[in-house]
Amino acid sequence: MGSYRGEYPKRGLRLALCFPVTIKMLSGSVEAMVENLSQQGARLTCDRLLAIDQTVRMEMPDLSGKPREVRAKMRWRRDQQYGVVFDDTFTLGDFARLAALLQAPALLEEAAPGA
């Protein structure tokens, strides 16, 4: 038997991670909450009205302890939920480290050199 091939292309790994981010635009910045994350983008909620196809910079957690700035574009909006696609996607390794940082930071400490 062959493998199952659905009508839609296979979607990348998407994690239900909730964490706050700051969205920076030309008109200022606003706080938002990421609801899920993939290597290519995220779904977030925001109280402020954002424009479709608007380019933004998102400050996200990073292993360095300082926020990581990620450029993204707003792709869709439904009420206060937004879908963004990242200009520079996460490598699988960076995506896994970010997920560990947000969910189980002790895993990163155990994996640190010299630990």
Brief summary of the model shown:
This protein has 115 residues and is an alpha+beta fold.
Question: Could you please describe the fold and organization of this structure?
Answer:
The protein has 115 residues and is of the alpha+beta class. It has two helices and seven strands, in the order βββββββαα. It has a six-stranded antiparallel barrel.
Helical fraction equals 10-25%
Main beta sheet strand tally, sense and closure:
6 strands, antiparallel, barrel
Work out the strand percent.
Answer: 35-45%
Number of helices: 2
The outline comes out as globular
Count of individual beta strands: 7
Terminal Cα span:
47 Å
Rg estimate, integer Å: 16 Å
Strand order of the largest sheet: 2-3-4-7-6-5
Order of helices and strands: EEEEEEEHH
Question: Which structural class do you get from the secondary structure elements?
Answer: alpha+beta
Low-confidence regions:
none
Query: Average pLDDT, to the nearest integer?
Result: 85
Oligomeric organization of the protein chains: single chain
Labels describing this entry:
single chain, 115 residues, alpha+beta, 6-stranded antiparallel beta barrel, 2 helices, 17% helix, globular
Please render the helix and strand layout as text.
Layout: E1 14-15, E2 19-25, E3 28-38, E4 41-45, E5 55-60, E6 68-78, E7 81-86, H1 92-103, H2 105-111
Antiparallel strand pairs: 1-3, 2-3, 2-5, 3-4, 4-7, 5-6, 6-7
Helix pairs in contact: 1-2
